[in-house]
């Protein structure tokens, strides 16, 4: 029997990466059963968070395998020629990075950079966007394609990556196939919410920490307090806060 081609996903620094790659692998597996899917965690902290969040790992383990960084070398030595595709988040990659070393160990692999999360990264068209100016720390020899969630991000990334390497595929977490699977996996949690919200409209609020990276702590606190004041005045709604990291 012919061995299945292996598709390898690298989780680098954030749970957001897992929340992008699992829906993408889920869709590929749904259409193509001739691939084997493996995800490696380079961070024990992120792996611990993934276990706590549980939903993405639970769904992925129905069709894929998880390995830890300590098993990377033995895995590559055993399967390097079978690995047909490698995915890593799109933070800068160069020849000194571990991900690039993994790619060069796998002669048959196509290397994809993928978004750090299911988000729009830029709505502003940069100056001189008609001309692609490759800048930054991305070594274009280390990867084959950069995948984007939306065409809005193309103008931003073409300043760092040649346009020929960019492909817009949409955000995997918002495809109907994934959302349907996610709903089935989360049925127990959803039923608890529905039971508590009988006769009311459900409003879901996604949050992230006021850590200064995106929101100042004072502004974040003001935002949450204002939201609670407005929503608590409504008797016809039931509010669910989803703490960061957000699903889907």
What is the overall silhouette? Answer: globular
Q: How many helices does DSSP assign? A: 9
Oligomer: single chain
Distance between the termini: 37 Å
Main beta-sheet strand count, sense and barrel state: 7 strands, parallel
Topology:
Elements: E1 5-11, H1 15-31, E2 35-41, H2 44-53, H3 55-60, E3 64-68, H4 72-79, E4 83-89, H5 98-104, E5 110-114, E6 145-148, H6 154-157, E7 166-168, H7 176-185, H8 187-196, E8 201-206, H9 217-232, E9 237-242
Parallel strand pairs: 1-2, 1-4, 2-3, 4-5, 5-6, 6-7, 8-9
How would you describe this protein?
The protein has 248 residues and is an alpha/beta fold. The protein folds into two domains: 5-173, Rossmann fold (3-Layer(aba) Sandwich); 188-242, no CATH class. The chain has nine helices and nine strands. The protein has helices at residues 15-31, 44-53, 55-60, 72-79, 98-104, 154-157, 176-185, 187-196, 217-232; strands at residues 5-11, 35-41, 64-68, 83-89, 110-114, 145-148, 166-168, 201-206, 237-242. Strand 8, helix 9 and strand 9 form a beta-alpha-beta unit.
């Amino acid at each position: 029997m012919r061995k299945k081609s292996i598709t390898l996903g690298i989780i680098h620094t954030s749970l957001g990466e897992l929340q992008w790659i699992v829906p993408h692998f889920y869709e590929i597996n749904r259409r193509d059963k001739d691939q084997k899917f493996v995800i490696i965690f380079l961070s024990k902290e992120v792996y611990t968070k993934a276990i706590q969040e549980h939903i993405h790992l639970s769904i992925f383990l129905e069709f894929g395998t998880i390995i830890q960084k300590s098993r990377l070398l033995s895995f590559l030595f055993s399967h390097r020629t079978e690995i047909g595709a490698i995915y890593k988040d799109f933070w800068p990659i160069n020849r000194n990075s571990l991900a690039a070393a993994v790619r060069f160990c796998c002669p048959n692999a196509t290397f994809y950079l993928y978004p750090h999360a299911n988000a729009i990264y830029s709505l502003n068209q940069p100056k001189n966007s008609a001309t692609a100016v490759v800048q930054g720390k991305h070594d274009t020899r280390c990867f084959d394609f950069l995948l984007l969630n939306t065409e809005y991000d193309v103008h931003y990334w073409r300043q760092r990556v040649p346009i020929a390497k960019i492909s817009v595929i949409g955000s995997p977490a918002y495809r109907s196939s994934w959302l349907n699977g996610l709903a089935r996996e989360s049925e127990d949690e959803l039923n608890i919410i529905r039971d508590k919200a009988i006769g009311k409209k459900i409003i879901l609020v996604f949050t992230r920490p006021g850590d200064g990276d995106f929101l100042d702590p004072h502004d974040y606190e003001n935002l949450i307090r204002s939201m609670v004041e407005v929503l608590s005045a409504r008797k016809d709604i039931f509010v669910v806060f989803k703490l960061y990291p957000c699903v889907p």
